Amino acid sequence: PYAVAEFTMGLLLTLNRKIHKAYFRTRDFNFSLNGLVGFDLHGRTVGVIGTGKMGQIFIRICRGFGMNVVAYDPYPLPDADFPYVSLEELLQQSDIISLHCPLTQETRRLLDRSALARMKQGSILINTARGAIVDCDALADALESGHLRGAGLDVYPDEPHIPPRLIALPQVVLTPHIGTNTQETRQRMAEGCARQIADALAGKRPAHVVNGVE
To answer: Which end of the chain has the smaller Cβ count within 10 Å, N or C?
Structure first.
């Protein structure tokens, strides 16, 4: 969860401050600031959809930047130290929305054309969860029209295919599903797989069950 939450903030910073564009300009000895203006995260409102481990860690990171946090989750934490709001309120209040929920029948296309239209004018969407939570065609329309300022995406509905319209948009930062790609996380994943295999061979019930499948 730390790897994904940290990467989410990195994606937001890159998108907002145009770090990727500035890097290539500087390599060409181009110090023009034209088109590289971002905005302060301090004082902005971030809406976090999904408050499991990743969402909670991302919330703590955002608070470290001095951001205001609102959250939506159909299963809210009873002892949360951050405010929960309805999805409608989150869409309307947030300058940045970050997705940290699993892909289920309820969350598939949770951010459809209607939901994206209700997002705050000039807001940013970050998705490091699952690609199918967002209607990518509707997202491209919202970006092209200027309703949304930008989007940072690490996941896509049909990987490794990326919607061509999103590739063509300059206000989109795309990465190849690398949110968990740290040394520590890869080590834990490998150890977890080994334990699962050993348990299966020993006839033990798996420690993790996904969608009812062992």
So the answer is: C
